[in-house]
Specification:
The chain is α/β, with parallel strands linked by helices and 228 residues long. It has two domains: 123 residues, UDP N-Acetylglucosamine Acyltransferase, domain 1, CATH 2.160.10.10; 53 residues, no CATH class. The protein is 21% helix and 22% strand. It contains five helices and 17 strands. The strands form two sheets. Strands 2, 3, 5, 7, 9, 10, 12, 13 and 15 form a nine-stranded parallel sheet that branches. A hairpin with a 4-residue loop joins strand 16 and strand 17. It starts with 9 loop residues before the first helix and ends in a 9-residue tail after the last helix. The structure holds coenzyme A. Coenzyme A (COA) binds next to strand 16. Belongs to the transferase hexapeptide repeat family.
Length: 228
């Protein structure tokens, strides 16, 4: 009788996936959000009209509004995504001029201001790491695989696989050479079904980036039908 191989036992394999329901801390607020599988939202995070892709996580105290966030993003404590721009051209920058309803009856919220804010949404790609206290300004797009340094203020789009730092954020260096970045973008491993991810995880840790790409490009894994 052959040795028992748990990796080939269907009942064992069925157990390899943990519960994918998002974990949202009770002190977090997620109004109008779409939240993917395996997402973690830590304590005191406030999200408003945000789509968060599968496996992405917000650490304590983060805040995002009117944003789309890809899969596998790591968002450090106290990050601000789409930091509100108060109006600069009115008599006051104070919210009395756009949310007077908070103080007075018969003085409604300024819908044009809210609509303009929604239109300046932020897009964060897949596999983006945002360092502690970083601020991403309205209308910015951050490409797949980019890294935002701690305390950066990102005022312009960030190209894929680029590390930016500082105030205002400037490219520090590419994360990979252009050919490797292009191969990763084509592989789009973040869209693989969880069965494939389960198999690939040891290689993510153990292989060099070149060896990983050589092996997994040759295997040509399918994309998941789930785009969450
Ligand atoms: C941006 C970052 C990823 C760069 O890492 P790295 O490539 O290993 O960078 P190095 O330490 O080699 O530093 C390279 C240069 O960038 C500078 N630098 C690094 N991080 C910086 C930052 N956040 N802001 C400004 N400058 C920074 C360094 O001083 C150094 O400058 P020099 O060449 O003039 O000496 C990293 O420094 C960072 O900010 N990580 C985020 C950490 C964090 O917030 N973790 C929270 C837990 S999720």
């Amino acid at each position: 009788m052959p040795d028992y191989d748990p990796e080939n036992d269907p009942s064992h394999l069925a157990l390899r996936f943990r519960d994918g329901r998002p974990k949202i801390h009770q002190s977090a607020s997620t109004k109008g959000c779409r939240i993917g599988e395996h997402v973690e939202i830590a304590a005191r995070v406030t999200l408003r009209d945000v789509a968060v892709g599968a496996f992405s996580y917000f650490e304590t105290g983060g805040e995002a509004a009117y944003a789309t966030i890809g899969k596998f993003c790591s968002i450090a404590p106290n990050v601000r995504i789409n930091a509100l721009a108060h109006p600069l051209d009115r008599v006051t920058t104070h919210k009395i001029a756009y949310r007077p309803n908070e103080y007075f009856r018969w003085r409604p919220v300024d819908h044009a201001f809210i609509d303009a804010r929604r239109a300046a949404s932020v897009t964060i790609g897949n596999d983006v790491w945002i360092g502690q206290n970083a601020v991403i300004m309205p209308g910015v797009t951050v490409g797949d695989g980019a890294v935002i340094g701690a305390n950066a203020v990102v005022t312009k789009d960030v190209a894929p696989y680029t590390i930016v730092t500082g105030v205002p954020a400037r490219p520090l260096r590419p994360r990979f050479d252009p050919a490797t970045a292009a191969r990763l973008a084509a592989l789009a491993w973040w869209d693989w079904p969880r069965e494939t991810l389960f198999d690939a995880v040891p290689d993510m840790a153990e292989l060099t980036i070149e060896a990983f790409l050589d092996k997994w490009e040759a295997l040509q894994p399918s994309r998941s039908t789930s785009r969450k």
